[in-house]
UniProtKB/TrEMBL annotation:
SUPFAM superfamilies in the cross-refs: GAF domain-like (SSF55781)
Superkingdom of this protein's organism: Bacteria
Matching Pfam families: GAF_2 (PF13185)
Gene3D superfamilies reported for this sequence: 3.30.450.40
InterPro entries for the chain: GAF, GAF-like_dom_sf, Phosphatase_reg/MetRdx
Domain GAF: start-end pairs: 40-152
Protein name, UniProt field: GAF domain-containing protein
Family the UniProt entry places it in: Belongs to the free Met sulfoxide reductase family.
Taxonomic source organism: Lacticaseibacillus zeae subsp. silagei
């Protein structure tokens, strides 16, 4: 298992400094994740839609993906509902897993909170079982917090 280099936090901060468009920020964040981590087949975001109350596909890197996820469904929807990071060593053992890509075997999801509200879920999938370590979880949580510091809900709501 290859652990993510913590330098990714500084890279993200530098990349997003001065950026005001949240979609642009999320697109580059997903590209940075995809470029910086090994053994991935998907890295991106699901955005909370305040009109429908579901999570909609946002910027990502990888194969085509599920476009809408209900709260409480799958790893992504469960993370939103529980407001917690979820690291899954084997997605096939996760009750209610949504198989958007049958090649995915491990997954980690991190809520992105801005102004006390979860605006998105960062979702990263791997074809390798048990791909994500506890250290990866810590670094990715910091990555999410850094990303959140560059987003604001007003801008996100006007674009999305």
């Amino acid at each position: 298992m290859t652990t993510l280099d913590p330098i990714i936090i500084d890279q993200l901060d530098g990349l997003l400094t001065g950026e005001t468009n949240p979609i642009t920020a999320l697109a580059n964040a997903s590209a940075l994740l995809n470029d910086s981590m090994t053994d991935l087949n998907w890295a991106g975001f699901y955005l909370f839609n305040t009109k429908t109350g579901q999570l909609d596909l946002g910027p990502f890197q990888g194969k085509v993906a599920c476009m809408h996820i209900q709260l409480g469904k799958g790893v992504v929807g469960t993370s939103y509902q529980q407001q917690s990071v979820i690291r899954v060593a084997n997605v096939h053992e996760f009750a209610g897993h949504i198989a958007c890509d049958s090649a995915s075997n491990a997954e980690i999801v991190i809520p992105i909170n801005v102004d006390g509200k979860t605006v998105a879920i960062m979702d990263i999938d791997s074809p390798k079982f048990d791909r994500f370590s506890e250290e990866d979880e810590k670094i990715l949580t910091q990555f999410g917090q850094t990303l959140a510091a560059h987003l604001d809900t007003a801008a996100l709501n006007t674009v999305y």
